[in-house]
Write a structure and sequence with these properties.
The complex is a heterodimer of chains A (14) and B (257).
Chain A: E1 2-4, E2 12-13
Chain B: E1 2-6, H1 10-19, E2 25-30, E3 34-40, E4 46-53, E5 59-62, E6 66-71, H2 72-79, E7 87-92, E8 98-104, E9 111-117, E10 126-127, E11 135-140, H3 141-152, E12 157-163, E13 166-173, E14 176-182, E15 196-199, E16 203-208, H4 209-215, E17 224-229, E18 235-241, E19 245-251, E20 254-256
Antiparallel strand pairs in B: 1-5, 1-7, 2-3, 2-6, 3-4, 4-19, 7-8, 8-9, 11-15, 11-17, 12-13, 12-16, 13-14, 17-18, 18-19
Classes of the chains: A mainly beta (14), B mainly beta (257).
């Protein structure tokens, strides 16, 4: 199945 | 000292209606560029980025960069007290822990001010690099809202697929499946009624529908919406705010483990 990714999987914290 | 006067006060009312269900508390940042906000929803799956450029305000005074933490539900309650035709002015003194919203009726015969307490919020900013997207779809915002609403009565997730045939929104649930295809359609009377698809390569991504339904609360801000899609990247759902800026929503996809 598909899992929900988080935004931090793609973008870094500033 | 901060003083921002927005003649079209209804824009700010609409912005709050668009974001208050997604984000509870957020910092509004004020600088020479404009009035902006970046905030994630509590599950860190969706993000909203707002920009209202300083040039869009009738009067814009921001002596130094300032970040004001606000509860968006409370701010929405206050802005609901402004009439749709009212001029809204935001005021805050340096170091103050309150912000004042002033509402003026167009004929200047009613002037109200509402003072709201500010909050300390740990802001969590994400760096979002410029990206080349595989596909960009522009369509009427009301059509996109209708599709999200219709599909969410069938399933919980939507697969958005862009091919040269068009953009397909698909879902499946216990009662069955649904597919809605929108083809490029530029031969309409008004440009805002067009569906325009720019595709560099085909892309197919899966998202939780409930977030899209939340994003469509921004529909009153713009006649059109733009979806920017790339494989395994968050989708960007953008509503342009005429002559002022934009509200963008970012949503992380669901992908194979």
């Amino acid at each position: 199945g598909k899992i929900q990714k988080l935004l931090s999987d793609f973008y870094c914290h500033l | 000292m901060l003083e921002l006067r927005l003649v079209q006060g209804s824009l700010l009312k609409k912005v709050l209606e668009a974001v208050k269900d997604l984000v509870n508390d957020a910092n509004f940042d004020c600088s020479a560029t404009g009035f902006s906000l970046q905030a994630m929803d509590s599950s860190h799956v969706a993000l909203v980025a707002l920009l209202l450029r300083s040039e869009g305000f009738e009067h814009y005074r921001c002596d130094r960069n300032i970040s004001m933490g606000m509860n968006l539900g409370n701010m929405a309650k206050m802005l609901k007290c402004a009439g749709n035709d009212d001029i809204i002015t935001l005021k805050a003194d340096d170091g103050s822990d309150v912000v004042t919203f002033m509402f003026e009726s167009p004929t200047q015969d009613k002037i109200a001010d509402f003072e709201m307490k500010l909050m300390d919020i740990d802001s969590e900013h994400l760096g979002i690099p410029e990206a080349e997207y595989h596909a960009i779809v522009r369509m009427p915002s009301s059509e996109f809202a209708r599709i999200c609403k219709d599909l969410s009565s069938i399933g919980d997730t939507v697969v958005i697929s862009v091919t040269k045939e068009g953009v397909k929104f698909s879902t499946r649930g216990d009662i069955g499946t649904a597919n809605i295809v929108c083809r490029q359609n530029t031969t309409v009377d008004k440009p805002e009624e067009a569906t325009v698809i720019e595709m560099n390569e085909p892309v197919s991504l899966t998202f939780a529908l409930r977030y899209f339904n939340s994003f469509t609360k921004a529909t009153p801000l713009s006649n059109t919406v733009t979806l920017s899609l790339s494989s395994e990247l968050p989708v960007v759902v953008e509503y342009k705010i005429a002559e002022m800026g934009y509200i963008r929503f970012y949503l992380a996809p669901k992908i194979e483990d």
